Amino acid sequence: MFHGTNPPSRFLPYLTWTEIAALPDRENTVIVVPTGATEQHGPHLPIAVDTVISAGVMGHALAKLPASVPAYALWPITYGKSEEHLHFPGTVTVSGHNLLDTMIDVGESVYRSGFRKMLIANGHGGQPQVMEMAARELRLRHGDYVVVPHSVWRMPNAASKFMSDREKQLAMHAGHGESAIMLALLPEHVHMERAVASYPPVFPSKLLSPDGRPACAWSSRDFGPSGVIGDPMGATREQGLEILESLATSWAKAITELHEAKWVVRDEVTWGRGAQTGHIQQRL
User: Which of 7, 91, 175, 184 is deepest in the core (most CB within 10 A)?
Assistant: First the structure.
């Protein structure tokens, strides 16, 4: 029940500590941490969107893996840095430093359990920098730790084939792509009859923003009262299923590549956090 779209056999919280201790090749086992948010997504989508998408896509990806690729999901991080949406009821936000501390603590726990590869699969556009900072801090602390922070959407997928040029250019939140994939993942909580379109104005400096997207800081209420930044109204469940399948296929390949990857490993004797010099060796 609690594993969501993850295969139960790939949901780490279902294992006992003794089973985890006995896992073979923990150094190359990929631990997937979906990160999302609880924030407004317009009048037609639930506030769970970012968490549902990150956890849902990764669960479908894990289901595609062959048994020979060891990878497990943890619980998703359901609260994110969502201050840009705090003017709308239902948005729950944590501060950037609290989220950073949480991600570092989760990463340290994964490391203490003997794992050396962690994938942070981020579904919320307001916090990639926090995930990158957490990954860098963990790398500085542990030279044999490979932590990859990556957007769930930043993989080859079919979403663009269903979008208008304007949607591709300016949409950022609760638009076509998110609405379509939510119709695939959680259709009973999507209300397309309430969907509205709302775009930001094209940013007036081509040097600062060649594509016209906002180059300055913004909050979602800057672009209208709905909370939507895009046009969701043409989204369908059939489109969402195709987008989900394409994302899951890409992510299954990426997880496999991360499992197989060999990466630079530091000598911990000479490389402490804040050290000025040290020795780097390549693990082959």
Answer: 175
